[in-house]
Known about the structure:
By secondary structure, this protein is an alpha+beta fold. It has a single domain (3-122), classed as Nuclear Transport Factor 2, Chain: A. It has three helices and six strands; from the N terminus they run H-H-E-E-H-E-E-E-E. The chain has helices spanning 3-16, 25-28, 44-57, and strands spanning 29-37, 40-43, 58-71, 74-85, 90-102, 105-117. Strand 4 (74-85) and strand 5 (90-102) form a beta hairpin. The protein is globular, with a radius of gyration of 14 Å.
Amino acid sequence: MHHTERLKACLQRVICDPAFPLAELDAWFTPDYCQEVNGERLDYPAFHQHIATLRRHLAGASIEFVATLAQGERVHSTHVVRATRQDGGTLVCKVSGLFTFRGDRICHTDEVTCLLAGSKEDADIGSRR
């Protein structure tokens, strides 16, 4: 699978699939994975905690890929995430991320997440733990 398709499959599974088990993160991300979001650095344990928190906070989500660009082991994606919180509130985020692959797993992400619509409390949605 090409890195662009792998990235799309990963984000659809991890963010949008309500049946996604956290144990499956290892299939998508390397053990030394690091994510930088809006200037905050999350190592793999912090990222795991972030995804667990999203799973508790969000009732559902969808992703619209606006543009992707691949070069070697890297894929840049601009995508829009629309989500419904457990309390019924909604949010919309625009994400610009550079994803680096090692083999078929993501080893690094440099991301900017911007809350376009929703509650101010969701401004940290890209790195919340």
